[in-house]
Amino acid sequence: MTRIAGARRRAFLFGIGAEARAAWWLRLKGYRILARRYRGGGGEIDLIARRFATIAFVEVKGRAEPDAAALSVTPWKMRRVARAARAWLGANPPERSCVLRLDAITVAPGHVPRHTANVAPLED
Questions:
Q1: CA-to-CA distance for 39 and 95, rounded, in angstroms?
Q2: Phi, psi of 85 (to 5 degrees)
Q3: The pTM is what?
Q4: Is pLDDT above 60 for 1?
Q5: Separation CA 40–CA 22 (nearest Å)
């Protein structure tokens, strides 16, 4: 395995671990995970979670430092998450009373995950 391939694999595994920690964190907060790593509509959603009448489409960012993770949640990335969310909603119509939002969870080793609700609008 080349150094580049090894680095990509480590980054992939770090991301999968960050998603697992984020899902765990959401479950501790009372959310039920509806889907993981959903792809559709030209985008990807790391986690789709529900708590009471709220459905959250969650972007997970894992970095070595919490501030670096927060800075990596960009408007461009959230637009892609919003497109995928609309595709998911087309296949899974929510109840009328559901609140829909785009959230972000940032994960860094040695730190508690940081959950930020409503980081971007779902509509264009």
A1: 22
A2: -65, -40
A3: 0.89
A4: no
A5: 21
Length of the chain: 124
**Tokens 């395995």 belong to which residue?**
1
Burial 32-44 (b: 16+ CB within 10 A, else e): eebebebebbebe
pLDDT over 80 (residue 3): no
Provide the β-strand partners of residue 62.
107
Q: Which one is predicted more confidently, 74 or 60? A: 60
Q: Report CA-CA distances (Å) from 116 to 8, 61, 70, 93, 120.
A: 27, 12, 10, 24, 10
Question: Smallest Cα–Cα separation from 47: which of 30, 64, 26, 29?
Answer: 26
